[in-house]
Design goal:
Elements (H helix, E strand, L loop, with lengths): L1 E3 L1 E5 L2 E8 L9 E5 L5 E2 L5 E4 L2 E8 L5 E6 L2 E8 L7 E7 L7 E8 L8 E9 L3 E8 L9 E7 L4 E5 L3 H14 L1
Parallel strand pairs: 4-8
Antiparallel strand pairs: 1-6, 2-3, 3-4, 5-6, 7-8, 7-9, 9-12, 10-13, 11-12, 13-14, 14-15
């Protein structure tokens, strides 16, 4: 996933930032300042941040809704689950191999100015893990989409989704497949 960054110049020095989330009237949940070394450039010369970001670290700024993304030895994943029409989506659980070293920054994306058309939940997940598993559910008019599922995000950018299935059923399926091999 690509997130294009904005540029701000102060005293001849350039700083880069992006907005995470879109709450009431389009107000971002977080303003994330980004180290230039983590940015990539497209064919038109625009700078962007590509998720998952490897070799990074995030720290909270002095203000509550400010994040600073700089070089480090962790991975930063971006995940959002789309809500149903006039509904909501929620991240139920984030499962990693190293839960004590995992940090999550939750945000919302309103589908309209005040959220009356739906509110989707998302998260930035900072962890040393090479893959993470996310359990989620959603409500509203789904038009055939499942109301719950599990999504697995990998460090190399792959995404696997198992929708409309519970964790216990997934474990049972894995056992059955392993028996056949």
């Amino acid at each position: 996933m690509k997130v294009y960054v904005y540029e701000k110049e102060v005293d001849g020095q350039k700083f880069y930032y992006c907005h995470i989330g879109a709450e009431r009237h389009g107000r971002p949940t977080y303003t994330m300042w980004v180290s230039k070394s983590l940015l990539k450039q497209d064919e038109q010369g625009r700078l962007y941040l590509e998720f998952p970001v490897t070799g990074c670290d995030v720290r909270q700024g002095k203000k509550e809704h400010t994040l600073i993304l700089k070089g480090g030895d962790l991975n930063l994943y971006y995940f959002t689950i789309e809500c149903g029409y006039r509904g909501e989506s929620h991240i139920d659980e984030i499962i990693t191999e190293e839960p004590d070293q995992t940090q999550s920054f939750y945000f919302y994306e309103y589908q309209s100015e005040t959220g009356s058309l739906g509110i989707s939940q998302g998260a930035l997940i900072l962890t040393p893990a090479k893959k993470i598993k996310i359990k989620w559910h959603r409500s509203g008019r789904l038009y055939g989409k499942p109301d719950s599922g599990i999504t697995i995000l990998y460090e190399d950018g792959r995404v696997e989704s198992v929708e409309g299935i519970e964790e216990e059923d997934l474990a049972e399926l894995q056992e059955e497949v392993e028996k056949e091999v």
